Amino acid sequence: MSQKPSLPKGTRDFTPDEMAKRNFIFDTINKVFKNYGYQPIETPAMENLSTLMGKYGEEGDRLLFKILNSGDYLKNIDQTDVTNDNLSKITTTISEKGLRYDLTVPFARYVVQHRNEITFPFKRYQVQPVWRADRPQKGRYREFYQCDVDVIGSDSLLNEVELIRVIDDIFKRLNIDIVIKLNNRKILTGIAEIINAPERLTDITTAIDKIDKIGVEKVYEELRQKGLDEDTIEMLEPIINLGGGNSQRLICLKEIIGITSAGSQGIQEMQYILDLTEQLDIKAEIKMEQALARGLNYYTGTIIEVLAKDVTIGSVCGGGRYDDLTGVFGLPDVSGVGVSFGADRIYDVLTELDLFPEQVQGSADVLLVNFGEQEAKFCLKIMEVIQNSGISAELYPNPAKLKKQMKYANQKSVRFVILIGEEEIKSGQYTLKDMITGDQMNGMLSELINRIKQ
RNA sequence: GUGGAUGUAGCUCAGCUGGUUAGAGCACUAGAUUGUGGUUCUAGGGGUCGCCGGUUCAAAUCCGGUCUUCCACCCCA
ipTM higher than 0.85? Predict the structure, then answer.
């Protein structure tokens, strides 16, 4: 019985054409990473659930894909837990592995496990898929690729500056106009301190973060809803409405939260990064955004988010500094900073803006027509010469009608077709057809190769 | 996880208030053209109308459920 083929929610196949475009993205990202001295690593698709759980907050735990244990996974289950609907306990009994949710936590695990082989500061990059049991929509998939670069074991802000350069470099090569939004967790802490509500930090920042989206009034409304009193909200007002350029914002912020130690340190760090990047040749718009608050609770310093201009899709890149990510795995006081590029969203942006270069197709340069058994055997040798000269070539496997073979070449966007039939074998003069211009020429193999290489 | 929309041929979609063998364009295959593709003409193949159930003499069409995709929230790449 045949069944209707289907794919799990939020996952996709990639066609050869899409793969060519995706590889264009991966290639430029990898090239830039390498160019700045980062080294590649890979980690397994699955991790122990104990490694993953509790690292992404409650929300994150819910979005983790869990893998059912092999064998008789029900044998250790406690019936009273079943009757009591004790889901979390049942879950940990029947599942002890999960698919990775991001590349940062596995990297932290990696660093701790390999600490004796690693020379710090360790600059690594990692390009692998991650999985989230999120509800899919545009730009949001359940399986997607992250391209992470991190420096671990160095608290220098020069790393932040370098990452900004990496971001700028990559999007410059991809021809995407971007805004790099910067903030610092210490500034957020300062804000919370100054209004005397450090424990409300998350509530405040998630509300303020929506200012562009829902407007000032709604932000106030949400803050009230979350139980902040009018006095506190009034104190927040200058921060919420803080506008102008980066330097202007910093000056204002200094007046408001400069007296807190966290606040002043955050402002100092931000100032340092902005000063340095200003001297560099950076194309991207760099914008300090006091409302930027990325959800992951492990950021402790700089917070980075990159948005593509002219496209409404989530961020295409994001990250920040985390001072103690490896602490939970028993290696304290290792500071790291990194960002993650979302290859799938970059793909969507390039598609929407029609920015993929024409040349990204993955077809061969030449197709050798198959006129029959004898001719095909002859072509095999010719093909060897062509391929050894650096030109990709394929021989049509069946002696099909010429029309069919031409059509095949046309549809695969193979640029050149070489025809070698009985006549050509005798004379040693082969026929070359340019499929774009329609021009044909006759000549020795070396002449044809020269023509193709032009 | 909450709320809303969607689903008809490989793709983009028609199919009015339920009524015979469900259509178009593009794509595909073959021929016109026995060594020349992309244009044109002709013919052809292809659909359990997402899936399951209900109402009805009769369901692609109405109702319920379920799945998918999309949108908003949440969160995020």
Answer: no
